[in-house]
């Protein structure tokens, strides 16, 4: 399969480009990015072409792998799908529900394949552990903590503008947490979101089978609070998932599996496509609205207090 890459920042250069270049079932055609110099440098590293515009890239490929901000991805991937190109998407698939629905509709209408790259669901070891946990009896509660400091300290993600949003932890880490919890406990019927005193996002969910779950998410945590753990508990005990070092090899291994699924189109195994990405997006949008409503209520309460203080 001939695949082109959209994006030339850190994730594209560290995970996507090497993965595409090293896959025996892929012809890595080239790179397009808004920053022409970065695209050219990345393309030169892998001895592929650097395209001047997105449509020229589409002319030469069967599929496109995206490593750009979610807002840009939704628009560009919709165009790719409408041109009959398979798409390998990052999470979240969009930053608002309308864009996500439009992208999913375009993929469905064109009949192309789609894969949403969720590192925890695609990593072979974690995938196996999640499948085993899903078969365990009596599990009634799950907990995921992804508490990071990547937007507080110097990191490759500091220039990622969408990650500077106050709700970025929800949008960036929420897809990982929610997908892992659903893969073991089943679909989520109700979800509640709030900030804790540290500014971390807390999610509380009820699953269709009656189980409950909890997630703690942060991108600006203090070093003392850093955490990355997943556990499920029930009548027969506790299951703790292994920690995978996604920075040093884990994400690359997961991406190879995502490529394999896009190329093979094998949907009999656990499969994360755009429709699943849209399901996650609906949950994220609901949580985001709850966080915004809570902020509005707090602002109105404070405003009302100020108004009374200054009256007269």
From TrEMBL:
GO MF term set: nucleotide binding; oxidoreductase activity
Domain Gfo/Idh/MocA-like oxidoreductase N-terminal: 1-113
DNA-binding among keywords: no
Family matches, as Gene3D superfamilies: Dihydrodipicolinate Reductase, domain 2 (3.30.360.10), NAD(P)-binding Rossmann-like Domain (3.40.50.720)
Transmembrane segments: none
Record InterPro entries: Gfo/Idh/MocA-like_OxRdtase_N, Gfo/Idh/MocA_oxidrdct_glycsds, NAD(P)-bd_dom_sf
Keywords, comma-separated and alphabetical: Oxidoreductase
UniProt key word Secreted: no
Chain coiled-coil ranges: none
Protein name: Predicted dehydrogenase
Organism: Rhizobium aethiopicum
